[in-house]
Amino acid sequence: MTLDVPTLLVVLAVMSQMAALSLVTNWIQRKPERHILYWALGLQLGAFSCVLLFLRGQIPNWLSIGLGNSCSLIALGLAWNGARAFNGRAARWWPVFVAPAVWGIALQVPAIGDSLANRIALGSVLSGILSLELAWEIWANGKDRLVWRAPFACVPAAHAAFLLFRMIAALSWDLPQDLLHGGVFIGLGILEPILMMFAATIIGLRLTDERLKNLLRRAALTDGLTGLLNHGAFMDIARDRAERGGNEGDEVTLLLFDLDRFKQLNDRYGHAAGDAALKCFSTLVQQHVAEVDFVGRVGGEEFAALLVGCGAERGRQVAERIRADFAGDPIHHAGQRIPVTVSVGVITATGRTVDFERLMVAADEALYAAKRGGRDLVFQVAS
């Protein structure tokens, strides 16, 4: 089997350039996605590196060997920073330039600079370290559960494994000094990055699209001001969970909240103060409920929380703590301390038949009983 190295370098350069242009086009459509630009710049630099390697023998070695390989290392560093940007982490530049600096210094040592095998081994080690860092950043530092994370992390991990094989083979086999006539071994060393680059580009875009779809889906389910479930999402999710909990024999407690005299607050202090009160209350509620519970903003100043596996006594305790904490900590807005209170209706249901609509009606009646009782109260009704 023969693999023409110059042809493979041209193919890799062209494919890298096309992939870079594809990512730039994608980035133009959604400019806040910084990671796409980093990946595009990395591919562009990779294409430039291939051109320099292709011109070996026609340009000075410090350009083709020195700068060409340095560019490929920087390209991996850009891909790593792109993964950091995707994960919402700040770019770090000094690690990007450590590898090319080590490469440039090592070329001054005759045992490395004059030996193709040793250069391949060193380049494989440096690239392998950067590839493993990239795989770790993609896999370990993501705070989401995107399906395409694992396949994307496997690409640089597989590349690092291949580089380990290439390093061992380079030190074990007799290689010619001319890269462009290096035969099957050198050809495979160029063919593998073509496949990895193609896979990384396709999977990287799938990962980006998956996260965008998740964000859009979340935006459709959440209230823009508080970040809680909106009315429709809460009703659908809570109804399903309540009925499932009832079928499993769990106790289900529904809390319904209404901020007291909210219209007067808006009229007196302005709508910005009202928004501050809503956000403060939503944060407080989330601090008092468990991760398995559901909280939603179901009206202008109305909120609801579904506590699964929570009995009547504990449900009342949770409601009372929320009421007391909210009343005891005035809203701070525009240099003013604004006292705000909340009324709460509580209903608990147990057994195999939980009717969520009846729970809502009962909780609403309890809430208005708290309002009639003077506000800033918790009123609980029997199931």
Give the count of helical stretches.
Answer: 13
Q: Give helix and strand order, one letter per element, not per position.
A: HHHHHHHHHEHHEEHEEEHE
Largest sheet: 5 strands, mixed
> What's the level 1 CATH class of the largest domain?
Mainly Alpha
CATH fold-level name of the largest domain: Rhopdopsin 7-helix transmembrane proteins
**Low-confidence runs (pLDDT<50, min 5 residues)?**
none
Strand pairing plus helix content: what structural class?
A: alpha+beta
CATH architecture of the largest domain, by name, is: Up-down Bundle
Shape: elongated
| Overall radius of gyration | 30 Å
Tell me the strand order in the biggest sheet.
Answer: 2-3-1-6-7
Number of strands: 7
Indicate how many domains the architecture comprises: 2
Output mean pLDDT.
Answer: 85
Description:
The protein is an alpha+beta fold and 383 residues long. It has two domains: 5-221, Rhopdopsin 7-helix transmembrane proteins; 231-381, 2-Layer Sandwich (Alpha-Beta Plaits), CATH 3.30.70.270. The protein contains 13 helices and seven strands. It has helices at 5-29, 34-54, 61-86, 94-106, 110-113, 116-140, 149-172, 183-221, 231-247, 262-269, 271-288, 312-328, 356-372, and strands at residues 252-259, 294-297, 302-308, 331-333, 336-338, 342-349, 378-381. The strands form two sheets. A five-stranded mixed beta sheet has the order 2-3-1-6-7, sandwiched between helices. Strands 4-5 form a two-stranded antiparallel ribbon. β4 (331-333) and β5 (336-338) form a beta hairpin. α1 packs parallel to α8 and α11 packs antiparallel against α12. The radius of gyration is 30 Å and the shape is elongated. The mean pLDDT is 85.
